[in-house]
Amino acid sequence: MADILQIARNGVLKTQILYRANLSFEQLTHYLDLLTSTGLLKKTSQKGKEVFEATTKGLEFLKTHQEIMGLLSHDSARGIRIKIPPGSLFATTRKEVN
Fold first, then answer.
1. How many domains does one find in the chain?
2. Domain hosting residue 59, numbered range
3. Structure pTM?
């Protein structure tokens, strides 16, 4: 999401986001819907084309994200390990019935 907001700071076409963020069309559609519904991104029409641009709220989100990432990289440089559990840790498992 932060990559999309970064790319869309000054307004870009959907295809530009698609290629610059290296997303599939399905992923792009999902994230654009999410970002626009939360007010982080706005969609306008310019010369008959859809243009996406980060809103003020989106730019604030991006700034906060960059600050957090800066803190994490700063801790990594000091040798502090930050463990993020793998996605599979949160996957639901099926219990077998005996």
1. 1
2. 2-76
3. 0.71
